[in-house]
User: Which sequence fits this backbone?
């Protein structure tokens, strides 16, 4: 074991009032070259002397691999109840005090072991400050950190350099290191909480008719009800009770529009005790009685965000839409040309929760809808949701839950346009049968087809049948993706993001590339000159086709039908 730098000296220094709320003190740093000259046990070299972590300890592996095992802790005194962590080059392991560790490895490596203390300010008096030992803001015991930021290892190397030369500077470097670890810990904790709350939100959505209370849902997350409420509001944008009410009211609206059930029956279906309570809740939530809302069944005065193509397929022209939707619905531009447009003001780098509609000063009877149909993603924008609620009753559709035909049938039922829905489907299926016959004659049904999108930063999205008119290619025309796409996209969730250099592995005989119109203008010359694209068989055979994002971003109803003609036209050229 080669130790090129070590220090175990204790350091003391005077603390002036109001310096900093956190004090980080470096106790020691060991840097080790791991060589195969150590004793070998079961083909694995083992440190002959266990490491006792008396202080907060960071083990950083710069090269090689390392297994760390806690052989005795306050919580796990028995050797039969040990924890173990496997570290690779670039990993850091955080260990809290009073743990005995056994380190082992199987190859040449290099690592650092830093021990330190963190004191946090508890009281700030006029003439002195009171600090207490605390590691609460740092990662939990046994946490492995996989940093992407090379700055972490640079700071560790600086500590090793200055430990015996400038102890004050060492403490400053250590503070930056621990602050960076704290931020990584906060980010990981936030991601974990966000994912957990998203799962809770999904559970509420699908189980809203059950007896759900803040307490029993919080219990499932193992969070205290008060803390659960705080985190849920922060991550989802609504209180627990409001979010539950949103989905219960939406299910009530669905029943009112699609059935003739009594209020009492609907109440039982959505989780309320009786029709009287539902009526009060509904009026409080929407500003109208259930009967008044039910009377809007069959209305054609509908706003849509998005679903414009579906409404047009049902014979309904929306009374208003959003600029962002129009800009990416160019195939139905003519039908939407006279429809009033609302613009979403996203501000200067404002988070989505702060986005707002720039509404007209007055909304006339001509532009005031009886019903607004929105995708469930509107709930990610609480300000937009609140604005729309003030204008007309909202009906939320879970975007992507149903395939394109089932979604059209569903909205046909909601809007009492079942006949129009069936007529459109019959027309669409006739076009599909005709196209499939033509493709079979050209043997294209025997070849592979892929759908890709240029995403910037040399990243490519590979889509399945749920996006960018993939429904036409795969579900309706029954064309086949290459095996890697079928295995990694269709069987594993419906889409995949890859780095551009990996594209040859996912290439198909026929490749549809979705990109902004401006990018597609130079696609042919770019691909012929590009070292990777030019080698793809689809490029060499002239079987790569550009689809304008402005025409294929939304692929529902009438837009889907017109996208079919473009896709088949390319395949038959």
Assistant:
């Amino acid at each position: 074991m080669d130790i090129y730098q070590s220090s175990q000296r204790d350091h003391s220094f005077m603390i002036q009032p109001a310096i900093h709320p956190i004090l980080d003190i470096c106790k020691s740093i060991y840097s080790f070259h791991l060589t195969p000259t150590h004793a070998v046990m079961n083909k694995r070299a083992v440190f002959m002397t266990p490491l006792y972590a008396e202080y907060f300890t960071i083990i950083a592996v710069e090269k090689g691999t390392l297994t760390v095992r806690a052989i005795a802790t306050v919580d796990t005194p028995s050797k039969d109840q040990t924890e173990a962590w496997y570290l690779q080059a670039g990993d850091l392991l955080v260990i809290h005090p009073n743990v005995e560790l056994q380190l082992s490895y199987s190859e040449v490596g290099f690592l650092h072991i830093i021990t330190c203390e963190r004191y946090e300010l508890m009281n700030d008096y006029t003439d002195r400050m009171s600090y207490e030992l605390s590691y609460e803001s740092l990662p939990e015991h046994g946490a492995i950190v996989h940093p992407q930021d090379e700055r972490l290892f640079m700071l560790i190397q600086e500590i090793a350099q200055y430990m015996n030369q400038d102890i004050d500077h060492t403490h400053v470097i250590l503070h930056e290191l621990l602050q960076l670890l704290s931020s990584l810990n906060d980010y990981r904790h936030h991601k974990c909480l966000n994912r957990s709350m998203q799962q809770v939100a999904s559970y509420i959505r699908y189980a809203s008719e059950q007896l759900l209370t803040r307490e029993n849902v919080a219990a499932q997350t193992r969070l205290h009800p008060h803390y659960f409420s705080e985190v849920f509001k922060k991550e989802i944008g609504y209180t627990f009770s409001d979010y539950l009410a949103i989905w219960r009211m939406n299910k009530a609206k669905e029943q009112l529009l699609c059935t003739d059930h009594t209020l009492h029956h609907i109440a039982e279906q959505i989780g309320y005790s009786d029709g009287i309570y539902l009526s009060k809740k509904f009026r409080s939530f929407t500003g109208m009685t259930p009967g008044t809302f039910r009377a809007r069944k069959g209305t054609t005065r509908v706003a849509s965000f998005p679903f414009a193509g579906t409404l047009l397929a049902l014979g309904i022209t929306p009374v208003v839409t959003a600029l962002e939707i129009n800009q990416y619905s160019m195939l139905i531009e003519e039908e939407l040309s006279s429809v009033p447009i609302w613009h979403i003001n996203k501000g200067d780098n404002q988070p989505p929760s702060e986005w707002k509609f720039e509404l007209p000063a007055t909304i006339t009877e001509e532009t005031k809808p009886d019903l607004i149909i929105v995708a469930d993603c509107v709930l990610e924008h609480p300000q937009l949701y609140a604005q729309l609620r003030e204008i007309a009753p909202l009906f939320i559709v879970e975007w992507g839950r149903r395939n394109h035909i089932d979604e059209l049938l569903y909205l046909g039922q909601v809007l009492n346009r079942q006949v129009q829905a069936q007529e459109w489907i019959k027309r669409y299926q006739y076009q599909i049968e005709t196209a499939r016959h033509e493709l079979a004659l050209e043997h294209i049904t025997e070849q592979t087809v892929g759908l890709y999108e240029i995403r910037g930063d040399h990243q490519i999205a590979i889509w399945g049948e749920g996006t960018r008119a993939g429904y036409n290619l795969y579900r309706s025309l029954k064309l086949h993706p290459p095996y890697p796409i079928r295995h990694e996209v269709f069987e594993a969730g419906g889409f995949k993001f890859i780095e551009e250099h990996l594209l040859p592995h996912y290439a198909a005989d026929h490749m549809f590339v979705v990109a902004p119109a401006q990018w597609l203008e130079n696609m042919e010359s770019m691909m012929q000159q590009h070292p990777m694209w030019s080698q793809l068989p689809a490029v060499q055979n002239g079987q790569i086709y550009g689809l304008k994002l402005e025409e294929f971003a939304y692929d529902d109803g009438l837009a889907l039908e017109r996208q079919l003609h473009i896709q088949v036209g390319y395949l038959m050229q």
